[in-house]
Amino acid sequence: MAIPSTPTWTATISAAMIAAGQLNVSFAQVSNMAARGAQDVKTELWDASRYDVLLTTETVVLVTTGTSAFTVPPDFDHEQTLVVYYAGEGLRDRAQAGNNQAITLASADGAADAAYNGYYLFLVAGTGAGQYNQITFNTESTKVASLTHVWTTNPDSTTDYLIGQLSRELTRAGDRVAPTVPSIPSVYRLTGYTLTIEPPPDHIYPIVLTYSPNLTMLDETGTPFVKWLKERMALIKQGIRVQTMMLFDDDRYDQELVKWEVMKAKYGAQNPTYSQVERHR
Questions:
Q1: Domain ranges in the chain?
Q2: Hey, CA dihedral for 151, 143, 205, 64, is it positive or negative?
């Protein structure tokens, strides 16, 4: 079976098993490998390196007034950066309207043409909340801000926005931080799957969380995993070949295992482990 340009997990497993000598591999055998041996391959690769640039994921967390703790995404392994965006007066307001690649700012907005060019605009409440975009041009007379890409959900007259005039990267605190007066968050602490920020926010703030996911917990049909699968195809297929040869007691198993160990070591060297990329410890 040929691997398509956009591969699937099961097609990759099937092709690897055929390459290992199982020319008449059945659907049941592929399913069994997908549930067992191929999962071992993912675990071995995750053990070799918990940091792969191809898997780096970004999400926007909206922290609400007075709330310091929020839960990280279910596929979270470790954080890379947390950046909070904030703004001065007049840059946090309610939109008049929006479409797929623009937003009409509040009627009170008085910014001159192109004043917001390059700024990030976050949807912080109402329709479309949790998305962000970059302003390419704003027009003073119409209040319309054009954006770099289309929204997943278009904003409308219920949408509150923040234009990220300023930002700061949060630093990691090793110990519990004493509560302080609500303000713009500046530090964070990770406990299990909960991130706690201090000071507690005095408004809704968007925090862009960039993190490395746990490879073993990624959705095998999701875009991040499929992209990773396509780029790491040779590596993955070798791991599944080894699993197949072990399953069918193939005489070539030891030889292919040596190749697999070398490839894993090279992968780990190219993608440093978590301890090598930890920040602000």
A1: 9-50+214-277, 55-213
A2: negative
